[in-house]
Amino acid sequence: MIYKRSSELFNEAQQVIPGGVNSPVRAFKAVGGDPIFVEKAKGAYLYDVDGNTFIDYINSWGPMILGHAHNPVVKAVSEAAENGTSFGMPTEIETKIAALAVSMVPNIDKIRFVNSGTEACMSAVRLARGYTGKDKIIKFAGCYHGHSDSFLIQAGSGAVTFGTPNSPGVTKGTAKDTLLATYNDIDSVRKLIAEHTNEIACIIIEPVAGNMGCIPPSESFLQDLRQECDKNNILLIFDEVMTGFRLAKGGAQELYDVACDIVTFGKVIGGGLPVGAFAARDEFMKMLAPEGPVYQAGTLSGNPLAMAAGYAMLSELNSKPELFTSLAEKTAYLHEGIAKQLEQNNVVHTINRVGSMISVHFSETPVTNFETAAQGNNETFKAFFHGMLKEGIYIAPSAFETWFITEALSYKDLDRTIAACGKIAATLH
Ligand code: PMP
Fold it and tell me: Which end is more exposed in the chain, N or C (fewer Cβ atoms within 10 Å of the end residue's Cβ)?
């Protein structure tokens, strides 16, 4: 494959955009090489500026659950654009999508729309702090909740400890209020709660982690978290930016039958337009401005194009619940096919999968938390990534990312992917 035009565009971009990209992972830093510039996408395929075609396993990092340029979404956006692109005033479509989302997701009465997953999580934490009157939060090492200051925290001296900023610009003052626990380790959470009695406002978690590869919650982990929160007057926030409207109509809450107090959304909920949302029972949501004292706002929140896209997307998912089963079946087929190819070629691996989220780790040990995810062989991953790319298969350019399966993928596409995997696996030693 030739990436001449992409490389030229990347050089130009670097002159005027930091690192040439508007979000770091796009720069291919983890795998090396220049990123691919997209010309267009349709269904399961990406077309780049050099005329190459790829089967897409990223799907804009999740939103494209029904494939790129999905006709009902494109139609809804085009029609909405004819009537104006933003008003900063209420519109009927906002109520329609809110009512639909509330009907699909368990344990919520009201939903507030924002412009990104970052905003959703940041606002959810503010609401939890406002409601409980407490300052500290618990997050899990390896979970990502966007780039707001409170989440850009890494473990300090011990694995479970006070956080320290992991980006310049995040103050020590902010870092002291974020406590880090270990994913799938309830004792690490209990320890923090015991050390900080009556100080913790909320626990925020990806109920299925998607930002250290795909990591399922171990049995009873989410239920145990629920119990700890109930016992200690702590709110449980499920960050369902990836899992919401993807694992089931009602997301991970439905799949695992565990209720959270506040749930955040992004990705699928906007049909590919910049949308995030957070939702909860009225008891919590009534704390929000203008009804209550917790401030939260946005000039473009509830934007008519974004709401039209999201409404078209959610309507389709709501009317075809069999889609979730079909997606899970496709993902299981891919899982089996890839595992077989890697086994036949003696490539050490672990594959994690929940519903339509899947990740391949070049690691022998089960991948259950950040530490075990980090043990994967990154050199093997790099070779695998570039090999697959040459075969026209676009997977995430980092070993810490999840692949997102779209309904637009055919079994023929999956077979092509599995065959490519076999070819590359034979070279991975
Ligand atoms: N939460 C999770 C679980 C995410 O995966 C992401 C983005 N990958 C975010 C929050 C942040 O969303 P955004 O990039 O839209 O700000």
Answer: C
Instruction: Delimit the CATH 3.90.1150.10 region(s) of the chain.
Output: 4-69+321-425
Q: Which fold has domain 71-319?
A: Aspartate Aminotransferase; domain 2 (3.40.640)
Ligand 1 and 401: CB distance under 6 A: no
Edge-to-edge, what's the strand order for the sheet holding 350-354? 350-354, 357-361, 403-404
| Active site amino acids | 144, 239, 267
Question: Counting atoms of ligand 1 from 1, which one is nearest the CA of 23?
Answer: 14
Task: Give the span between the Cα atoms of 174 and 195, in whole angstroms.
Answer: 18
Q: Is 397 in the pocket of ligand 1 (CB under 6 A)?
A: no
**Ligand 1 atom closest to Cα of residue 61:** 8
Average pLDDT score, the chain:
96
Whole-prediction pTM value? 0.97
Architecture of domain 4-69+321-425: Alpha-Beta Complex (3.90)
Q: Ligand 1, residues 113, 118, 125, 183: which to mutate, most atoms within 8 A of Cβ? A: 118
User: Where does the pLDDT of residue 159 fall: very low under 50, low under 70, confident under 90, or very high at 90 and above?
Assistant: very low
Q: Using alpha carbons, select from 173, 93, 189 the residue that is nearest to residue 141.
A: 189
pLDDT at residue number 157? 56
Token digits for 99?
Answer: 């009512």
The ranges of the chain annotated as CATH 3.40.640.10 are: 71-319
